[in-house]
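dumping this here so i dont lose it
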């Protein structure tokens, strides 16, 4: 049976279950129709603008969420199928969060409900939510165009299995979006709705994954020979906005540096190391090293967000901006983190070489408070001949 038929069958044959059955770790394979009524949902944002609507043709009700967030009461989701209908109410990013462990950690799928959404390559997106950060600008690999009606009802079907997810939108037979690895910090948690949108016909079938493997897909980017995996993270230092940091400003105590490894797509995901807050912006310092068999110059590809300054053996080699605002400072692709953001040569001497990067990570080229979005970078040696790249 086609995936679309399975999703529609789930919607048409399941019965509404009493509230008492909307509980943690429900029986595998039991489809649950979730009432869209005030007794089953609670606000999780300040003063959400929400209306619970009774309308012919929608026996379980409609939630009209003009702003804010709602959480489903007494429900835990791990793996399975989530079906729902969603009608955007404004040009924004309405969607659903699942495996929501707490307000700061979960997984999110959303629609960018813009007039050209069907044709745009970022019409829909999956993003992990980690320590309060929404990483939309870190993973362009997990956004794509979709057959979305920006001003009408859309049927969405999420199939979640371990570290994998397939998303089907409207009449899609094949996955509209395939997520090769879910990257949030959680394995199970609640469901939340995010406006502005109307939501209806929400059903959940725990454990129904249609044979989708729970194992992440191979990562061809992160496994390429020149990707830098071995990093050290130093303590934050003050940001002197408008002036370049110096090598002497780097953290001096070797014991204060923390060893880290890059993740999928070769990304050093710093969102796992910090928490979103209204603290002032600061400089992040990361360091790696490379052994060369001779004096030589090598080309580097670097992906970053905000502004980066690159020091090689103590000397400032280059710097570059990749802010989302102003749009004139967005690097390809669209201000997202990518190894296509920039490429430059670095001089290496024979033996051991130290590379230190100072990072002002933000989507705004100003002194705004700490970013609420992606925080990290990725680096690759385009030619590894004569180099010993730590794996």
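and the seq i came up w/
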């Amino acid at each position: 049976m086609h995936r679309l038929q399975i999703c529609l069958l789930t919607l048409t044959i399941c019965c509404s279950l009493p509230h008492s059955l909307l509980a943690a770790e429900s029986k595998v394979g039991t489809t649950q129709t979730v009432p869209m009524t005030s007794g089953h949902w609670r606000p999780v944002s300040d003063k959400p603008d929400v209306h619970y609507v009774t309308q012919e043709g929608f026996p379980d009700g409609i939630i009209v969420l003009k702003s804010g967030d709602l959480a489903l009461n007494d429900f835990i989701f791990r793996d399975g199928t989530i079906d729902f209908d969603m009608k955007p109410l404004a040009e924004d990013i309405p969607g659903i969060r699942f495996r929501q462990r707490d307000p700061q950690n979960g997984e999110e799928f959303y629609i960018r409900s813009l007039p050209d959404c069907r044709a745009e390559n970022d019409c829909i997106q999956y993003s992990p939510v980690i320590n309060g950060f929404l990483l939309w600008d870190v993973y362009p690999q997990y956004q794509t165009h979709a057959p979305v009606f920006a001003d009408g009802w859309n049927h969405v079907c999420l199939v979640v299995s371990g570290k994998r997810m397939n998303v089907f939108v409207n009449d899609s037979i094949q996955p509209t979006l395939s997520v090769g690895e879910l990257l949030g910090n959680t394995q199970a948690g609640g469901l939340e709705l995010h406006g502005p949108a109307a939501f209806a016909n929400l059903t959940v079938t725990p454990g129904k994954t249609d044979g989708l493997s729970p194992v992440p897909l191979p990562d061809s980017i992160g496994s390429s020979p020149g990707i830098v995996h071995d990093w050290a993270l130093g303590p934050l230092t003050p940001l002197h906005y408008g002036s370049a940091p110096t090598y002497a400003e780097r953290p001096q105590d070797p014991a204060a540096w923390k060893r880290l490894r890059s993740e999928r797509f070769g990304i050093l995901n710093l969102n796992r190391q910090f928490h979103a807050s209204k603290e002032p912006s600061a400089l992040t310092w990361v360091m790696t090293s490379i052994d060369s068999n001779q004096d030589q110059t090598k080309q580097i590809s670097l992906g970053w967000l905000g502004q980066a300054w690159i020091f090689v053996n103590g000397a400032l080699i280059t710097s570059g901006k990749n802010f989302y605002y102003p749009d004139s400072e967005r690097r390809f692709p669209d201000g997202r983190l990518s190894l296509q953001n920039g490429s430059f040569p670095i001089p290496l001497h024979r033996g051991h070489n130290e590379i230190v990067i100072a990072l002002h990570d933000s989507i705004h080229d100003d002194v705004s408070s700490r970013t609420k979005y992606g925080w990290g970078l990725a680096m690759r040696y385009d030619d590894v001949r004569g180099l010993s790249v730590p794996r």
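The first strand starts at residue 32 and ends at 33.
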